[in-house]
Amino acid sequence: MVSCTSQHCDINVYDEEARLATLASYCILDTPPDTAFDEITELASLICDTPIAVINFVGRNRQWFKSEKGLGVKETPLNISICAHVLLQSELFIIPDTSQDPRFVHNPLVTGKPFVRFYAGTPLKSPGGLPLGTLCVLDHRPRELTEIQRVALSTLANQVMRNLELIRVQQAQSGLIQQLQSAQQELTHLAATDPLTGLYNRRAFEERLSQEHALIQRGQSPAALMMMDLDYFKVINDDFGHKAGDRVIEHFAQVCRNVFRQSDLIGRWGGEEFVVLLPDTTESEAWQAAERLHQVLRQTRIEYDEQISLSITVSIGLFSLSKDRELEEAMRLADTLLYQAKDNGRNCTVCADFRETY
Predict the structure, then answer these.
(1) Could you read off the pLDDT of 233-250 as tens digits, one per residue?
(2) What CATH number is given to the structural domain containing 141?
(3) Is residue 3 over pLDDT 50?
(4) Per residue, what are the HEC states of the chain?
């Protein structure tokens, strides 16, 4: 440790841009007060018996105080900073009497408030040895530090850097956790989604259907369920190829998104089969939604390329999902109703309770 005067200093040479980049990597500037740092300044003040103690970090044009006791400001311009001189020192930097030091005798911090006469600061160094700021104590009268106080100040500076490193580790861990959560959400989404349409896949839809049925069993309002099949889809694949078939599937999925409510669950059951669960919906209300779907499909053509324009229709089996009907029974009924719609000439809806065709 050295007591630095104008006649002799232990000069520390460093790359300023590298220093500023390292300081920025800690994301410490302009952060809120932190008890862990405040306790260190309080302890430094008590041990060194000074009215002022500061933890500061030196930016490009300012020194910013992460914690301060007895100073009353959060930052000062760099051109009046005494602490900036500490960055050039390898160890403890002490000015016993600023009024006798030609570097600081005209400094506004010496000639005006807080009238600094004594200064002792030790650099806060990164693991790579770059000085980021200082832990310093100040007094209004000339004085010195005992050997014990000097050792204590340097020890507390090490504690500041340990806290700073801990914050950086916590920030890195937090960022990693967020990345893992995002990846998990993405994987969950992919596992539940049909890759071609972006709708629920069969497994995910079955899970949601079971949840809805359990709620209905506990007294929630009945829901409606539609089982749908695109008419003559195999002909499209055979005549125009699977790319045209994929285009039709994608188009139908988008039409369903437009026709049904956001609260309705739409799934691709497999191939050209689709399912829609309409919570809190009567069979009559669901039939109206099915009729809207038929109408939109009648009014829409799919432009596959410059020569090919396609239109599609759909057959629908529709029934009410209630607490009086077990889920397995309901799904068997869905298949039965769907095939009835096909047997009735396709492009129609067959409802369960009345076995009517619309």
Answers:
(1) 999 888 888 888 999 999
(2) 3.30.450.40
(3) no
(4) CCCCCCCCCCECCCCHHHHHHHHHHCCCCCCCCCHHHHHHHHHHHHHHCCCEEEEEEECCCEEEEEEEECCCCCEEEHHHCCHHHHCCECCCEEECCHHHCCCCCCCHHHHCCCCCCEEEEEEEECCCCCEEEEEEEEECCCCCCCHHHHHHHHHHHHHHHHHHHHHHHHHHHHHHHHHHHHHHHHHHHHHCECCCCCCECHHHHHHHHHHHHHHHHCCCCCEEEEEEEECCHHHHHHHHCHHHHHHHHHHHHHHHHHHCCCCCEEEEEECCEEEEEECCCCHHHHHHHHHHHHHHHHCCCEECCCCCEECCCEEEEEEEECCCCCHHHHHHHHHHHHHHHHHCCCCCEEECCCCCEC
Can you give the pLDDT at residue 338?
92
Same domain, 262 and 164: no
Token pair belonging to 133 = 């700021």
| Mean pLDDT for the chain overall | 88
**Catalytic residue annotation:** 272
Residue 163 and residue 310 share a domain: no
Same domain membership, residue 26 and residue 127: yes
The stretch 105-111 carries a mean pLDDT of 88
What is the tally of structural domains in the chain? Answer: 2
pLDDT for 45 equals: 96
User: Do strands 118-125 and 93-95 pair parallel, antiparallel, or not at all (unpaired)?
Assistant: antiparallel
Co-location of 221 and 167 in the same domain: no
Residues 144 and 279 in one domain: no
Q: Same domain, yes or no, for 209 and 163?
A: no
Using alpha carbons, select from 256, 285, 291, 296 the residue that is nearest to residue 273.
Answer: 256
Domain membership of residue 282 (yes or no) is: yes
Same domain, 167 and 226: no
CATH code for the domain of 264: 3.30.70.270
7 lies in some domain = no
Q: Is the pTM of this model over 0.70?
A: no
Domain range enclosing 60: 16-174
Pair of tokens at residue 129: 């040895």
